[in-house]
Amino acid sequence: MSVIISPSLLSADFLNLGQDIDMVNKSKADWFHLDVMDGVFVPNISYGLPVISQINKKATKPLDVHLMIVQPERYIEQFFKAGADILTVHLEACTHLHRTLQCIKSFGMKAGVALNPHTAIHNLDDIITDIDLVLIMSVNPGFGGQSFIETSLNKVKKLKKLIRESGSETLIEVDGGVNTETGQALVEAGADALVAGSFVFNSPDPQETIRALKELK
């Protein structure tokens, strides 16, 4: 299976968002990555439900929604109604993670769990078979354009080992500092999906950049 590419619209041109959505629709990208920040869980604020609802009207590919918010369980149904196909919550933000994942799945969405750079893989030991996707943060969440944290490669390898040993079909997604160089290393380590924001949208030819990422093996 080729690597899944999920361009992050956090780095898109919001004055011309429709054009950037069209670009991703036409590209070899697989998903749209949507970062939702509340200014509490992370030190930044992005867009919320109304913007995602509008993106959903134009996007022709699944919406991969990453909630960087406190108490994400309060908004699961609203994000489902806004169009989320994959809904990822942070382990660090969920007191009752298993219950939250089951609620996400009850709406027919794929359930993801994100891990901050300091959070160890062993925290997923008892729940890995209930997770459709694990999002490894390879930068500290909150802002685009940060440098890749090299220890993320080892985390991907540890997670791949856990997935194989558990017999689960969980996908590994990585977000932060992804380019063709770090992306190649991540795919070799076992990543199934790559999130790329500024590397795609700040490039001279975003569609070509997406194609280059898609061809990593």
From TrEMBL:
Q: Give UniProt keywords alphabetically.
A: Carbohydrate metabolism, Cobalt, Isomerase, Manganese, Metal-binding, Zinc
A biological process from GO: pentose catabolic process
Domain of life from the UniProt record: Bacteria
List, alphabetically, the GO terms of the cellular component aspect: cytoplasm
**Would the keyword DNA repair turn up in this protein's UniProt record?**
no
Q: Tell me its cofactors.
A: Co(2+); Mn(2+); Fe(2+); Zn(2+)
**Cofactor stoichiometry and binding remark:** Binds 1 divalent metal cation per subunit.
Catalytic reaction annotation? D-ribulose 5-phosphate = D-xylulose 5-phosphate
A GO MF annotation of the entry reads: D-ribulose-phosphate 3-epimerase activity
Keyword Manganese annotated: yes
* Positions that bind a divalent metal cation: H33, D35, H66, D175
Binding residue positions for substrate: S8, H66, G142, F143, G144, G145, D175, G176, G177, G197, S198
Pathway(s) per entry: Carbohydrate degradation
Write down the top EC class of this protein.
isomerase
Pfam families listed in its UniProt record = Ribul_P_3_epim
Q: Record's CDD domains? A: RPE (cd00429)
Known EC number: 5.1.3.1
Q: Where is the active site?
A: D35, D175
General function of this protein:
Catalyzes the reversible epimerization of D-ribulose 5-phosphate to D-xylulose 5-phosphate.
| Entry's family note | Belongs to the ribulose-phosphate 3-epimerase family.
What is this protein called in UniProt?
A: Ribulose-phosphate 3-epimerase
The record lists the organism as Odoribacter laneus YIT 12061
